[in-house]
Design goal:
Length: 120
């Protein structure tokens, strides 16, 4: 059973085009080697997340979905430290995590990205 603090309800997601445009229009950048996070204050007491995984970087839908699941799960655990921000995570290039099937490396990169976003 999920607690309210660790859940990921619809209100915590960037789902419409205007939300994404707002983040793309005025944002700060935080980068790790393969991930880019664009973030801006949202005037709310909670963080919201959007994820962009282009098909030209990750061909297989199974792999794209796995990446999105890992990013969402990491966000779900770190959302309290990111409160008050709208965040869009983009995959910058082909990820070696998929070829190596190394989810631990992916999770470490995503957790590092949240630390950069929280401190900026």
């Amino acid at each position: 059973m999920h607690t309210a603090a660790k859940s990921f309800p619809r209100e915590r997601r960037l789902s419409c085009q205007t939300d994404f445009r707002a983040v793309f229009g005025q944002s700060q950048k935080s980068t790790s080697h393969y991930l880019l996070a664009l973030h801006r204050p949202n005037g709310r007491t909670y963080a919201r997340l959007g994820i962009v995984v282009p098909k030209h970087h990750i061909k297989q839908s199974v792999d794209r979905n796995m990446l999105k699941r890992q990013i969402r799960e990491s966000f779900r655990h770190r959302q309290n430290t990111l409160a008050g921000k709208d965040i869009v995570v983009l995959i910058r290039s082909k990820c070696p995590f998929l070829a190596q099937n190394n989810r631990h490396l992916l999770r470490a990169n995503v957790d590092n990205l949240w630390t950069l976003v929280a401190t900026s």
